Amino acid sequence: MLMMKARYNGDTYHYKPCDDPKALKKGKRYKVVGFVKGEYQTNLILKGVKGEFNSLWFDNWEIPEGKPVYQCSTSRIPKVGEQLVAFDQTRGIDVLSSTVKNVKKQWLSRTWRVETRNTIYMVRLA
């Protein structure tokens, strides 16, 4: 599995049972070593931290290639060769990306990993 990193944003809201985030420090980056997919929520398993934590509590995703990873929503599935038009929930801005190089459906039913030259977007169909 690809080793990803994400920053805990301090959120605590969740749909299904997960562990209390008191063990997490707001602003700290954690290595993600696993995912637990639920019907309404995906929990993360973090290196060196006992428990499962709501994936929405994390942002500023980063993968080994060194590209930043942003969480966005869009009204249509992105396509290779086009630009991604989406809304970035983390930064609160509209996104018009450079040309999409790769699109891969992810573990979540309505989520895609969209890669451009310099950035990776985790895109959820709204």
Short description:
Helices cover 0% and strands 49% of the residues.
Question: Can you offer a commentary on this structure?
Answer:
With 126 residues, this protein is mainly beta. It has two domains: 4-62; 68-125, no CATH class. It is 0% helix and 49% strand. It has strands spanning 4-8, 29-37, 42-46, 52-54, 58-62, 68-74, 83-88, 93-99, 102-105, 111-115, 120-125. Strands 1, 2, 3, 4, 5, 6, 7, 8, 9, 10 and 11 form an eleven-stranded mixed β-sheet that branches. A hairpin with a 4-residue loop joins strand 10 (111-115) and strand 11 (120-125). It is globular. The relative contact order is 0.19. The model has no long low-confidence stretch (mean pLDDT 84).
Average of the residue pLDDT scores = 84
Instruction: Give the number of DSSP strands.
Output: 11
Largest sheet: 11 strands, mixed
> What's the assembly state of these chains?
single chain
Q: Tell me the β content.
A: over 45%
Order of helices and strands: EEEEEEEEEEE
Share of residues in helices:
under 10%
Question: How is the secondary structure organized here?
Answer:
Elements: E1 4-8, E2 29-37, E3 42-46, E4 52-54, E5 58-62, E6 68-74, E7 83-88, E8 93-99, E9 102-105, E10 111-115, E11 120-125
Parallel strand pairs: 6-11
Antiparallel strand pairs: 1-2, 1-5, 2-3, 3-4, 5-6, 6-7, 7-8, 9-10, 10-11
State the main characteristics.
126 residues, globular, mainly beta
